[in-house]
Design goal:
The protein is mostly helical and about 120 residues long. It contains three helices and no strands. The structure holds iron/sulfur cluster (SF4) (2 copies). The site of one iron/sulfur cluster has 12 residues, from helix 1.
Length: about 120
């Protein structure tokens, strides 16, 4: 693991629960890391959110997407929450999202993908 990747992991891990997916979308998800959703959804909740807001897979945990929506509404750029985010590129796991942002590697979407870019 390179120095930049290691630094990102130790700084974003404790603060955001970063799982090092290498393509950060925190800016558009209310600073809530969607990779902590057990289904690793990138575009909003599954249909199984419990009535009390708990996660259907881990009921002891509040649904990540519910938290994300609540937090996003307090941000000046709250509309970014509604942007369509491309699926996770599994080749980028454990690489630095900072580096991938500056090289634009994180904006390469799968063939045939016609959704909007990430926020
Ligand atoms: S979206 Fe990816 S890079 Fe951003 S905090 Fe979550 S796991 Fe880390
Ligand atoms: S309830 Fe929320 S956190 Fe749990 S799997 Fe569904 S979308 Fe993910």
């Amino acid at each position: 693991m390179g120095l930049l990747t290691a630094f990102e992991k130790v700084t974003k891990g404790p603060v955001f629960g970063c799982q090092m997916c290498g393509q950060c979308v925190l800016h558009s998800t209310g600073l809530t890391c969607p990779m902590n959703c057990p289904k690793q959804l990138r575009n909003g909740p599954c249909g199984g959110v419990c009535a009390d807001g708990g996660c259907e897979v881990k009921p002891e945990m509040r649904c990540v997407w519910l938290k994300g929506w609540e937090r996003s509404q307090k941000l000046p750029w709250k509309d970014e929450f509604n942007q369509l985010r491309p699926p996770v590129d599994n080749r980028l796991w454990n690489t630095s999202s900072w580096k991938n942002y500056f090289t634009k590697r994180d904006r390469q979407a799968p063939d045939g993908w016609s959704g909007a870019g990430e926020g």
